[in-house]
Input
Amino acid sequence: DAGITQSPRHKVTETGTPVTLRCHQTENHRYMYWYRQDPGHGLRLIHYSYGVKDTDKGEVSDGYSVSRSKTEDFLLTLESATSSQTSVYFCAADREGSGGTHYNEQFFGPGTRLTVL
Amino acid sequence: GESVGLHLPTLSVQEGDNSIINCAYSNSASDYFIWYKQESGKGPQFIIDIRSNMDKRQGQRVTVLLNKTVKHLSLQIAATQPGDSAVYFCAENRGANNLFFGTGTRLTVIP
Output
């Protein structure tokens, strides 16, 4: 699992409230990702990071922001949660080979189930 | 449009039989493919990968086949066991460090 943990594991919140999900990794991976998983859609990329303070948008980034102030932590923020953001959120990190080769072989955390009422 | 998809959403097999899970892709520029297994309540788990310069790759009880001519990927599981019951996803690397995932196939192993 590449030493990836996510917190909280479950959260219920109300529409309009801010929510921050945390992803923590212990193996100094450079690349980290946030996905959401919904029935019928598989996993869809929200944002990703290729280093400290280096982030970029994914396929479904609207309504989400991210921050990475240190290598081990990648935070996903919903500034004002909506019911359409009810989902299971997964964090992932890449395995890198020798010499910094980027395999894009992603390892996933256990997920956070978020419910927005 | 471009897609990464699966031919069948569900697959049931008898314990001990071989399983074949299929995946179609349409982006001919994709150069790397991965199969993931996801058990209930857990994150996806890497199974095996293959690069576009290969046709076949084998792991422990699993084989991935890549047919670039028809843009088709398959995962074969030998001697399927109850612990293989899960949802299986294929994913393709379309570049820019991003993976695109299919919607998944649920494999059920019948004892």
Notes: The mean pLDDT of chain A is 90. The first strand of chain A starts at residue 4 and ends at 7.
